[in-house]
Amino acid sequence: MTSIVPARDGERMPAHANGQDWQVSWHPVDDPQEGRPHGAAGICVTAAHELVLISHDGEHWGFPAGRPEGTETIEETLRREMREEACVTVVASRLLGYCRSACVRGHELGLVLIRSYWRAEVRLEEWAPEFEIQHRRVVPGSEAKRYVRDPVPAATRVSFRALEEAAIGEGHP
Predict the structure, then answer these.
(1) d(Cα 4, Cα 145) in Å, to the nearest integer?
(2) For the chain, which terminus, N or C, has the lower number of CB atoms within 10 Å?
C-alpha cells in the first residue's frame, strides 16, 4: 500500500467530486482563507486517547463534520455537528487549521468553500443516530490512519494533516 503524504501548507491538490473539478489546500490557523464558510470537522478524542469516527456506509470512516446553521460561529457548528453526527459532547476544542476548496470546473465554477478543522476533546454519549450517519467507531488514536480514508485522495491527505496537527496517530497516544 502506498504511503499517503499529509497535505502541506498551501499545496493545491486536484480533486474531482460530484462532476466538478476542485483545487483543495490546507492552511494553518494563522492563515485563514476567504470564502463561503463550509462548516467544521472534528478530530474527536476521548479521555482514553481514542478517536471517534463515523461512517455513512460502515466501510468508509472519517471525522464528523457539517455546515453552519443560521448565524452559528464555526465553533458552535463544531459542537452541534459532533453531537448530531457522533453522539459526543465537546468538552474542549482547539482550532487546527482550514481546508480551502475552490471549484475550477463545473456548475459551481469560482465557488470557494472553507472548512475549519478542530481537535475536540469529547465525552461519548449513548449512540442514538438521528440523521444520515448510521455508524460510529471508537479506535485507538495510534491506529487512526488505518481507518481514515476518503474516496477523494486530496480529502484523505487533508485528514492526515489534521491528524498530525491534532497529535493523533503514529508516535502519539
Answers:
(1) 9
(2) N
Q: Can you give the CATH number for the domain in which 150 is found?
A: 3.90.79.10
Question: Residue 1 has what pLDDT?
Answer: 40
**Sequence-distant (≥ 6) Cβ neighbours of residue 114 within 8 angstroms:** 32, 33, 34, 35, 36, 37, 38, 98, 99, 100, 101
> How would you class 84 by CB atoms within 10 Å of its CB: exposed for 0-12, middle for 13-18, buried for 19 or more?
middle
Is the separation of the CB atoms in 153 and 147 below 8 Å? no
Q: CA-CA distance, 171 to 173, in Å (whole number)?
A: 7
Distance (Å, rounded) from C-alpha 146 to C-alpha 169?
Answer: 9
Question: Does some domain include residue 172?
Answer: no
Q: What is the pLDDT of residues 69-93, one digit of tens each?
A: 999 999 999 999 999 999 999 999 9
Predicted confidence (pLDDT) per residue in 156-166, tens digit: 999 999 999 99
Question: Are 133 and 56 in contact, with CB atoms under 8 Å apart?
Answer: yes
Boundaries of domain holding 19: 13-165
What tens digit of pLDDT does each residue of 103-112 get? Answer: 999 999 999 9
Residue 131: inside a domain: yes
